[in-house]
């Protein structure tokens, strides 16, 4: 457990937590891409993996700017979200139902990340850390865009999922 004595300590703690979250996501996204059957969803997961690696780099830059190093913290929230994603992967279901489940798991991740990046950005703004604010804003905006892409893909996936009435065997 870390000792938080200032807003800067809290910001650093949040950034380390986000770094852990993004690292966990780099391991989960390839599995989600492999499990997806919809080509746009598969590509979306693959694209987001490359973006997540950029997010890690930005977090390392932000921490470096603050005179800190990444590591030393495990994001428990992402650990739980990744476990839910693993359940969606392992669930036996028709392809469109599985894809809808994967989208739900991915959107929960995106919403967590949007909240965490938004909070961290607020701390950086209060501290006058404009370079850190810019890094966090770039990532926040990408997380919002990813969520919108998932929503767009969900429209066709959900339409395909309607073909299954629950009586069909998988």
Describe the structure.
The protein is mainly alpha-helical and 170 residues long. It has one domain: Up-down Bundle (Ferritin), CATH 1.20.1260. The longest helix is centred in the middle third of the chain and has 33 residues. The chain is 80% helix and 0% strand. Helix 1 runs parallel beside helix 3.
Summarize the structure.
The protein is mainly α.
CATH level-3 fold name: Ferritin
CATH superfamily: Ferritin, core subunit, four-helix bundle
Rg value:
18 Å
- Average pLDDT, rounded to a whole number, is 95
Number of domains: 1
- Global morphology: elongated
By DSSP (H or I, 4+ residues per run), the number of helices equals 5
> How would you classify the helix and strand content by structural class?
mainly alpha
Give the distance, in angstroms, between the N- and C-terminal Cα atoms: 46 Å
DSSP E strands, number: 0
The helix fraction, in percent, is: over 70%
Largest sheet: none
Low-confidence stretches: none
Order of helices and strands: HHHHH
CATH architecture name: Up-down Bundle
Relative strand content = under 5%
CATH class: Mainly Alpha
């Amino acid at each position: 457990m870390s000792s938080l004595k200032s807003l800067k300590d809290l910001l650093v703690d949040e950034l380390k937590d986000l770094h852990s979250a993004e690292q966990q996501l780099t391991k989960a996204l390839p599995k989600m891409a492999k499990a997806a059957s919809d080509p746009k969803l598969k590509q979306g997961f693959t694209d987001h993996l490359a973006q997540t690696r950029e997010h890690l780099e930005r977090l390392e830059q932000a921490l470096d700017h603050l005179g800190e190093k990444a590591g030393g913290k495990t994001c428990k929230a992402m650990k739980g979200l990744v476990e839910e994603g693993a359940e969606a992967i392992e669930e036996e279901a028709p392809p469109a139902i599985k894809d809808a489940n994967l989208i739900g798991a991915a959107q929960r991740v995106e919403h967590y990340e949007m909240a965490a990046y938004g909070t961290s950005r607020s701390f950086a703004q209060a501290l006058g850390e404009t370079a850190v604010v810019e890094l966090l804003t770039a990532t926040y905006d990408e997380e919002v865009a990813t969520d919108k892409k998932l929503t767009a893909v969900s429209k066709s996936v959900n339409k395909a999922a309607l073909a299954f009435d629950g009586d069909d065997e998988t």
